[in-house]
Amino acid sequence: MEELRPLVIGDLVVEKPIIQGGMGVGISLHRLAGAVAKAGGMGIISAAQIGFTEPDFAENPEEANARAIHKEMKLAREIAPEGAVGFNIMVATKHYDRWVKEAVKAGADIIISGAGLPVSLPEYVEEAYREMEEPPKRRIKLAPIVSTAKSAMVICKMWDRKCHTAPDLVVVEGPLAGGHLGFSLDQLTQYGADTDDVPSSYNQAAYDQEIKAILKVVKEYGDKYGRHIPVVVAGGIYTHEDVMHQIGLGADGVQVATRFVTTEECDAPEVYKQAYISAGKADIVITKSPVGMPGRAIKNSFLTAVGDGIRPAIPHCYRCLEKCDIAKIPYCITQALVNAARGDNDNALLFCGSNACRATKISTVERVMDSLMGKTAE
To answer: Phi first, then psi: what are they for 26, rounded to 5°?
Structure first.
């Protein structure tokens, strides 16, 4: 059996090959990211509307978010001074370039970026370095999120041609992931990941072949630049056996999000965590997000109302998405996710992964990490 080795990303070494997935709004902030980093994994803070608790968020969301990026990184570093901590930044958000620059200036170890193709990510990082009086000694690592070999090829080809570089890490997010998904509804149907009995209907073998194709693309560009580009796989990773399956395919590690929600350290409110514990398989559904992508969430009164054509009032625009027409969207995704982060479950979008229904109790980050590493049977 393959052994679990440290995740080596250039000069950044993560003791345990487990990345905690970024979850916004307000679900993975400094407490969760810091705890995972302290436990030897990589902690990821979600930059999505990160400033929602700032007093001027409604009036000036851009400045509130910018401040919060620095605050959350500082607090995470206080928890894990030597740990690996980074940000997840969505391409689809307004001011994407600024969030990237703020993350660089805040001293993040890595930026993981998806919800669109992060073709300009290296350029924005270089701009940030030019704006800094003292750039850090260790360069920030850049990791695009891909779901298919085609998207991996597009990103690698664009970075190679435009920026003469390649990713430092690639995150492969499969169809069992939570939140926004990089698949069409037809693709989710193809993999059997669009039903209420996932993961029992999931075609693991079919997506394993896609992962192998992505590994091949990444190796091609790693060879071109004379270095190994590690690949981690996300989506439906819940047990040590799931971790070892991905390692057996050739992955260097895994990214896990849903499993960390029901921990004491997760930044989510208790009622959010309890929604996971109370959910059954049939409660986990695919919904269409205003972002324009399918998303996986827990069915509640909010999603039922939206499905019935009831449009919640949108009293304020937070200017969160690059492509959003407030007159046409079914609901404001920022407001729905902020409601979730504030514990207003009845008016919230409760994003989750396909395995959320497997949670039965509140655990701790340390116990979850030990379980994923195969040290305990929890």
So the answer is: 75, 10
Residue 46: closest CA among 320, 240, 276: 320
Return the exposure string of 315-330: e unless at least 16 CB atoms fall within 10 Å of the residue's CB, then b: eeebebbeebeeeebb
The domain that holds 365 is classified in CATH as 3.20.20.70
Residue 305 domain-assigned (yes or no): yes
pLDDT in tens, the chain (378 residues): 457 999 999 999 999 999 999 999 999 999 999 999 999 999 999 999 999 999 999 999 999 999 999 999 999 999 999 999 999 999 999 999 999 999 999 999 999 999 899 999 999 999 999 999 888 888 999 999 999 999 999 999 999 999 999 999 999 999 999 998 989 888 999 898 887 777 778 999 999 999 999 999 999 999 999 999 999 999 999 999 999 999 999 999 999 999 999 999 999 999 999 999 999 999 999 998 887 789 999 999 999 999 999 988 887 887 777 777 787 888 999 999 999 999 999 999 999 999 999 999 999 999 999 999 999 866
**Domain, as residue range, for 304:** 272-347
- Cβ–Cβ under 8 Å, residues 289 and 320: no
**Is the pTM for the entire model greater than 0.90?**
yes
Q: Are 112 and 70 in contact (CB under 8 A)?
A: no
Cβ proximity of 34 and 76 under 8 Å: yes
H helices within 132-203, ranges in order? 149-163, 185-190
- 46 and 25 in a common domain: yes
Q: Name the one residue in this structure whose structure tokens are 């192998």.
A: 212
Residue listed under structure tokens 């895994």: 254
Looking at the structure, tell me whether residues 280 and 258 fall in a common domain.
no
